[in-house]
């Protein structure tokens, strides 16, 4: 209708306001919405496009509107020259679209917008300004579409599907209920943890994490009890996801994790799986394989690499050993004593080295400081500093 609902992270209840409060020029309901990702054109980049497909009378100072129109806003202000016909702004895209979502270059091979109308998807190439229609019968009509945490979703009623933006293929395990994920409703909510997961799915519990990971793209994950949390996008909320949701076909607990050269290494017991970080976490053919063959150790309690470095540090018990990932076959260096008798996980970012144990973490400014430390760094709360939980 003529209202917009806003939902924020942290389990807060959504609230509503009239569309005219934010976009006074509209004067009516919106059929589709799109925030455009178009780095090559700064004027359009991060513009908000709102689509209408119904005739309305002209307001004061406005020309009459009829047919299908698109409104573009930048910084909350209507851009000059808008509203325009949808076909003038996006040649080849019909009016009356049901939904629209931007598709990033790494996902679609170029800057693209996907427009949904019935069972047909219109793929608009932002560079070439051409449209290609596709039919994705398995996905079906979408009343809204969005990209969230590198994933694409088609919403319909109170349910949603996750789909591949190149093929339209729907992922296994869908549809799911919108009220358990994107909109926190009373008595429901995936963001509040699935009851069957217990403390493992509660981001604020003090249950230990088994592993942490900072990958080459800047994404940060925490692993616990067969689940993973995304930490670098706190504005989207801290949701627990089964491992297979992000890393296809992966199940069970992750003991250690690290990233190097565009690949993510997930260690489970005596085996390691490797996933390509830039291709939707696609597992490399031939994995999992024995950790001893891949890295020269039978197991590991924790592992980390620092940004831009090929040095891998493996921790077992109170010892840490170095592996040069550029050498083949790989050999581990001599063990060095740590100021900790045991750690659950480890991670290295531009902010330093983090060692995790129980509900606490210990931060060191560099690997050199860690290796030279005689006493553990002061403990700090994982829940407070990484998950923004109340103290």
From TrEMBL:
Residue ranges of Hemopexin repeats: 94-138, 139-185, 251-298, 340-389
Pfam families: Hemopexin (PF00045)
CDD domains: HX
Keywords, alphabetical: Disulfide bond, Glycoprotein, Repeat, Secreted, Signal
Recorded superkingdom: Eukaryota
Residue span of region Disordered: 1-22
Entry-linked InterPro entries: Heme_transport/Cell_adhesion, Hemopexin-like_dom, Hemopexin-like_dom_sf, Hemopexin-like_repeat, Hemopexin_CS
Location(s), subcellular: Secreted
GO CC, alphabetical: extracellular space
Main location group: secreted
Residue ranges, compositional bias (Polar residues): 1-11
PANTHER family, alphabetized: HEMOPEXIN, HEMOPEXIN DOMAIN-CONTAINING PROTEIN
The protein, known as: Hemopexin
Organism classification: Eukaryota, Metazoa, Chordata, Craniata, Vertebrata
